[in-house]
Amino acid sequence: MGSEYILETRNIVKRFGSVTALNNVNFKVKRGEIHVLCGENGAGKSTLMNIISGVYPHGTYEGEFFYDGEECKFLSVGDSELKGIAIIHQHLALFPLLSVAENIFMCNEFAKRGVVNWEVTRQKAQELIDAIGINVSPNTLIKDIGVGKKQLVEICKANKLNEIGKVCDSITVLRDGSTIETLKKGEDDISLGHIVKAMVGREITNLYPKREHRVGELLFEIRDWTVYHPLHIDIEVLHGVSMNVRRGEVLGIAGLMGAGRTELAMSVFGRSYGQNISGELYMGGKKLNIRNTGDAIRAGLAYVSEDRHEYGLVKGMSVKDNITLASLKQFIAGGKLDSDKEVVVAQDYKKKLNIKCRDVDQKVDELSGGNQQKVIFSRWVMAGADVVILDEPTRGIDVGSKYEIYQIINELAAQGKAVIFISSDMPEIIGMSDRVYVLNEGRVIAEIGQKELSQVSIMSAIMEGAKKEA
Q: With contact defined as beta carbons under 8 Å apart, do 413 and 243 qualify?
């Protein structure tokens, strides 16, 4: 292997029983370049990274790979880390009951004679936190921060700060476990359309499906909603937030990380975030008295969390059980659960939402991210919710599955449901929303109609809000 490549895989084959996950994958990364590996869920990206990082040890796959000119035969993640390979997982590898600082320096502690120097640990962690730009204390427990901040903590762990903010130099596309092509910036077509076609094997001419905008009567209102931090009673997280959503409307909520979008969604959905909450909620003009998530569900609210693994899925349970979880009363007759009826209904949702699984008895853990998200959607559609709150519903799923999720959202709106759509992806917010509220530092700072909706209008509102806060 030439010295220009720091990493190279040759004819990698990985099988899980009778399923071939990787089929003769070749992947080369030059020194000093940022190389994007992309593909749909199930394309084999994570499997390849797990081989390179030692999760799947040498001997469990065919082919070979080289790092810095030497063939690697890693038997563990520790072997890859000693070589200088760090991986930031899509599904975060953090310890929820340890602090941010403890997670950043896990297995790389500042210690002498077995005694950790916590002062230095916190100081070094703070330096990394400041460099990344996370608004969090190094002493905060991981379980008390959101998914976005957890991802940034993972970046701190990787300690590759010089790579942040740069754009890719090369792109390799995987599809169905095989290498499709490698594209070079400045030489090849790296347009979104070309990459999407390579990923999915077909063209997706419109990233956001068309929808007839039939916005109806006012359905759900939030009035003067104020919420304090769940651990620090003196910190006000949301400040008198008021907004409304109509039947058939997709209402976007935009804002930078830390704006309070997830805190708003969770506190509204059965007060599952925060304390000392004040304000009022109305459904169809009637005031709601919601004390917990059960009350929220009975009132017609549904919440799809940004962290589907922590708050959405019940791991170890089947697709069927996850779908029917919020509607079990529908399947109880004579004091017994009608499992056969559950199967029939779950199969119907599998077909309607195009959930790709062997059968509805398959463990939900084994599905791709996009299909797991469809399972969660199925649950709330079955529960008959009138207001569906979606918090980063397409985070971590491939472009093909995103399109299918968008179609489901449009179908919910067509049925007269009200959809509250939270996303950090600004083109997604613009492409899907009828109207957008912009949050900044826990306050509504703008309401933007569809005709005025653009990245410029959203960012201008955020900048103006930041000036006022300063």
A: no
| Same domain membership, residue 370 and residue 228 | yes
- Whole-number Å distance between alpha carbons of 27 and 37: 9
**pLDDT value of position 408:** 87
> 162 pLDDT exceeds 50?
no
- On whether the pTM is more than 0.70, the answer is no
Q: How many distinct structural domains can be found in the chain? A: 3
Task: Output the pLDDT for position 254.
Answer: 92
The answer to whether 382 and 341 have CB atoms below 8 angstroms apart is no
- In this prediction, residue 467 carries a pLDDT of 59
DSSP-based three-state secondary structure for 367:
coil
**Inter-residue contact 21 to 44 (CB < 8 Å):** yes
SS3 288: coil
Distance of alpha carbon 276 from alpha carbon 292, whole angstroms: 14
Domain coverage including residue 32? 1-86+163-205
Q: How many CB atoms lie within 10 A of CB 200?
A: 19
Same domain, 374 and 388: yes
Residues 301, 408, single domain; the answer is yes
Same domain, 55 and 145: no
Q: For 71-94, write each residue's pLDDT tens digit.
A: 999 999 889 988 888 887 666 668
In order of 34, 78, 284, 311, 439, the CA distances from 384 in angstroms are 46, 48, 15, 19, 29
Residues 316 and 425 in one domain: yes
Is residue 212 in some structural domain?
no
DSSP state of 115: E
In a domain, 440, yes or no: yes
The dihedral of CA 295, 299, 303, 309: what is its sign?
A: positive
